[in-house]
Design a protein that fits this description.
Layout lengths: L3 E4 L5 H11 L7 H13 L5 E7 L2 E9 L9 E8 L8 H15 L4 E7 L5 H7 L3 E12 L11 H7 L2 E5 H6 L5 H12 L14 H9 L10 E5 L2 E6 L1 E3 L6 E3 L3 E2 L8 H15 L4 E7 L3 H10 L2 E2 L3 E7 L3
Parallel strand pairs: 4-5, 11-13
Antiparallel strand pairs: 1-2, 2-3, 3-4, 5-15, 6-13, 6-14, 6-15, 7-8, 8-9, 9-12, 10-11
Helix pairs in contact: 1-2
Keywords: Acyltransferase, Transferase
InterPro entries: Acyl_CoA_acyltransferase, Bact_Acetyltransf, GNAT_dom
Protein name: GCN5 family acetyltransferase
Amino acid sequence: MNLTVRPIRQDEWNAAARILTLARPHEPWSAQELRQRQREQTAWGYTAGVLVAHAGETVQGVAAYSQNPGAYHPHRFVLELAVSPERQGQGVGRALWSALHGTLREHSAQEVRILAREDHPVAPGFLIRRGFVADKRYFTSALDVTTFEDAPYRALPAQLAAQGIFLHSLATLREAGTPDLEARLHALMSEARVDVPRADPATPLSFEVFMDAVLGDSGLLPGAYLVAEHAGEYIGQTALFRSPVSPELFTGLTGVARAWRGRGVATALKVAAIGAARALGAATIRTDNASDNAPMLHLNDRLGFVRDPATVSYLRRSSS
């Protein structure tokens, strides 16, 4: 097969998104989402790009590199690499990696990460042979909204109200004309995310990134972006997002300020989000958590989320 690898063209975003989604169907991409990430990375001053491998006019594989605004370092990159199922084992992945590796060297990459399911028949071996080392593990989990039983949690709102804690949606906060809403939500997320286990050290999430990547996300569901409030102070949050290429809903950050943990706030937020998903007619909610995030994994298990096989973050350093 005569392969060519080059930067993506405008008419190839759909094909690239399709191949990435086939490789990891529980984390789907639309062409719109893939293009939006590229635009955002450029606007934020980050380095990103998408390469495609093709034979003739048909896209056979895709490789992408970007930078994580929540764990940013100028020489640290996040990768995706996927080959069309009918072209696996024919050298497409090898050609993509060769081109991607050269591009990363041009950008002085010191560390790169890529995710792969531990049960994938090809990816773990492919990555290890190219100097990647299995590092942090994550679990994606799914909840069947249609069978969720909320009876054990119906007293939670009253219990929280007795402590002066109330839940609000982004939709109702906007309708109420809440002053400084965006700045307060940014401050809440900044506090709530500090202790979330992650592969690389957290860096501050700028207000610009928060506005673009969270509040500006076209898939954000304002009725399912929920905030816990006490005496005017925002103390916890969760959010659901929808992709145009999946009927499932996806969980953003669920977190509670340190001083308010252990009071049922996270549980109440998650249960309320499930109720919002049910009202939207969604059948499934997906979430993902680091394997060492024991409190959130325990909460998700208790609510009925079912774990998939682990996803592994593979790390490659420039010296590898």
